[in-house]
Amino acid sequence: MGDMLSADEQIAKRGKPVMRPDQPVERAVRVLVFDDDPERKPRLYVCTGCGSGHSPAIYACRDEEAHRAARSAAENCYTCKTHNQCQDCGAQCDKHWLVCPGCRLKRMLAKREHVAADSFDYCFSLEGDGFYGSALEAAEAGEQWVCPAEPLRTFSLDAESILDSLLEDHFEDASWHDLDGTQDLLEAIDRFNKAQKQGSYDRDEKRVCFVGDLAPANDDAEEACSSGPCDAKRTEERE
Ligand SMILES: [Zn+2]
Ligand SMILES: [Zn+2]
User: Rounded distance, CA 125 to CA 203, Å?
Assistant: First the structure.
C-alpha cells in the first residue's frame, strides 16, 4: 500500500497516473483513498482514460479478490476499450464480441448438421431475414448458407389455453367440470385444426446447407468454396 496516494496528492499529480510496475498494467489506473483514512485503504480504482471508477465494494468476494477485480476492471476499462481480439483467430473484432464474424460463422456451422441442397424446399437466410422457395432461389439471391425450414406449422387453436382463459375470468376454482358442451367444442376445434392448409414455416436451427455453389456466376462463392467439386458443379449449372 506504500505507493498509494491520497486523493489530493493524485489531483496534484493529475496526468501522472498511479501505476504499479510489478503488475501488467494495461491502462493507467488511479487509486483513490479517503483523505482522512490513516490506513490509506484504496476505495476506488479509476480509469485515467475516461475517469470511470470501480469500487471493490460491489464485488461479493474476499477483500483481496474484490480489490484485484476492481483494479482489473479499471485497467481493462470497457468504456475505453476500442476492440477485442477474436478468441479463435486473434484478429481484431468488435468489443461487444469475443469472436470475429468469420469465426462466429465457423463455430455455428460446426454445430449443425450439413444437409444436401435437394433435401428441402423452403429455407431461410442464416440471419432469418430472407425466405426462399428453394436452395437455388436462395443462391440466386446471393446467399452462401441457408437454414432449411421445418415442415409447415399450420394454423391451430389450442383448446386447453382457450378453456383456461375462459375459466380465469370466473370464480376461483372454476374448472372444466363446470362447463357444458366441452366435448362438442373439443371435437369442433379438432376438426377446425385438421382443416387448416396454411400457416408458417419456422427455421430448423439444427440444420444448415451450403448453397453458394448453386448460383451460376457468384464470385464470392468461389472463394468460400474450398475445392474442385464446386467448379464442376458450377459448370454443370451453366450448361
Ligand atoms: Zn476508461
Ligand atoms: Zn476470428
Answer: 9
Asked whether residue 147 falls in the same domain as residue 157, the answer is: no
Is residue 1, in this structure, part of any structural domain at all? Answer: no
**Phi/psi of residue 32, nearest 5 degrees:** -100, 140
C-alpha 19 to ligand 1 mean position (Å)? 15
How far is the C-alpha of 34 from the C-alpha of 53, rounded, in Å? 14
> Cell 389450442, residue?
158
Segment 187-199, tens digit of pLDDT: 999 999 999 999 9
The cell for 149 is 425450414
Ligand nearest to the CA of residue 100, numbered in listed order: 2
Question: Are residues 169 and 141 both part of a single domain?
Answer: no
- Beta-carbon contacts of 166 under 8 Å, excluding residues fewer than 6 positions away, are 179
| pLDDT-above-70 percentage for the chain | 79
What spacing in Å lies between the alpha carbon of 77 and ligand 1's midpoint? 5
Does residue 2 sit within a domain?
no
- Cβ–Cβ contacts within 10 Å for residue 133, how many? 10
Given the C-alpha cell 377446425, which residue does it identify?
Answer: 192
45-74: average pLDDT:
94
What domain range is 19 assigned to? 7-75
